[in-house]
Amino acid sequence: MRALPPDQIPQKVRLESPSAGAVARTVLIVVGVVIGLYIVYLLRQPLGWIVLASFLAVAMSGPVRFFARRMKRGFAIAVAYTLLLLAPILLGLIVVPPFVTGAQDLAKEAPTYAQQARDFADKNPTLRKLEKNYGVLTQLQNEARKLPRKVGTGAATTLSDIGVTLINSIFAGVTILILSIFLLADGGRWVKRWLKSHPEDRAQRLERTLNRIAAAVGNYVAGALVQATIAGVTTFIVLEILGVPFAAPLAVIVALFDLIPLVGATIGALLVGIVTVFSGFPGDTIVWAIWAIVYQQLENNVIQPQIQTRAVNINPFAVLTAVLFGSRLFGVFGALLAIPFAASLQIAFIEWRSWREANRVRAAGIAEPGAV
Mean pLDDT of all residues in the chain? Predict the structure, then answer.
């Protein structure tokens, strides 16, 4: 089949080349998007602080409302945040001193532990042969004798590194607290002004969506705290029954790690298991391992579903996916914020779908009389 000359091609078939203006607009849009993403990347730290501050403001809105029933809102915010600041201080007083003492005692007793290990190896032919060939226990004894001196000489460097990290963390924490206070104090007025810029029906739907999101975040925080408290109390009871030292600090650590979804409870159980190795191996370690496995199954299948289903009412698959993505992108904080973020997206999607369905029904009702 012979091709038609260009002047004989029908007008509808001809392909128009894009104009210079269209090409320029496309290039500018692409460049603008790239620049915008780069700016977001540069501002990722303050933007992350703002996200954390927003989450904290929503989580603290419940306690602030509780205190605001009995005093002015400004005093209610001050009381709520004062209690929030006192919580880590009290936890530090419970956890830090016993573990500092324990670390010092461990350093002092390290040569004794090494000698006990050597005596045990001398009675075992296999271990005795390994010691003769590789000298593992000899090296262990030498390092154990150096440990008390290393603890003293390395303390200055360690404290210096901890000090720098602590100062940076304090600066970030104070900034996030101040941002959350501003959001909690003035955020309501900003939202009302924003809602007034929309039609009445849309404003009502947006307000309902925001209220549902705030309730879901608050319920999630309350549920997570209840779950962590249960984990900490049961851990304390079991450790007291076993006679494991530092029962209260270890219970606090388990409760704190239990706030981290998926892996937090396992990490806390492993830390306690290490302590039981030194306090009562193998009896205490075996009992604790059995208890930790049983409790985690109970928490994963009974306690957590009952608490979080009532709190955020989110699909379990969505919870797992959100936690995996959040932890991969933003670490521990991402894992902590993943579930309320997923719940917020779910609520927004449900409201959007309801709004679209209402518009479809309304449009069908208007079109039907005109068709008759």
Answer: 76
C-alpha distances (whole Å) from 202 to each of 198, 351, 358 are 6, 11, 11
Q: What is the Cα–Cα distance from 328 to 21, expressed in whole angstroms?
A: 42
| CA dist., res. 366 & res. 372, Å (int) | 11
pLDDT in tens, 191-218: 888 888 888 878 888 888 888 888 888 8
Q: Measure the CA dihedral 47/49/55/57, to 10°.
A: -120
Alpha helices per DSSP H over the chain = 20-42, 44-68, 73-122, 125-134, 136-153, 155-196, 200-242, 247-258, 264-280, 283-298, 304-312, 316-371
Token pair 């101040």 is found at 178
Integer Cα distance of 53 and 184 in angstroms: 9
How buried is 348 (Cβ within 10 angstroms: 0-12 exposed, 13-18 middle, 19+ buried)?
middle
In this prediction the pTM is 0.66
Query: How far apart, in Å, are the Cα atoms of 90 and each of 84, 86, 167, 289, 294?
Result: 10, 6, 19, 29, 30
Asked if residues 257 and 267 have their Cβ atoms less than 8 Å apart, the reply is yes
Angle at 52 between CA 51 and CA 54, to 5 degrees: 65
155 pLDDT tier (thresholds 50, 70, 90):
very low
> Which of 347, 309, 322 shows the shortest CA–CA distance to 210?
347
Q: Which two tokens stand for residue 134?
A: 């590789």
Counting residues of the chain whose pLDDT is more than 90, the rounded percentage is 5
* Token code pair at residue 364: 């069908």
Q: What is the pLDDT of residues 82-117, one digit of tens each?
A: 888 888 788 777 777 776 676 666 666 656 666 666
Taking the CB of residue 97, how many other CB atoms lie within 10 A of it? 11
Q: State the pLDDT at residue 372.
A: 46
For the record, the structure tokens of 103 come out as 């670390």
- Tokens representing residue 22 in the block: 């269209």
In the predicted model, what is the mean pLDDT of residues 231-235?
Answer: 91
C-alpha 18: how far from chain center: 49
* Token duo for residue 180: 């959350």
pLDDT band at 128 (very low <50, low <70, confident <90, very high): low
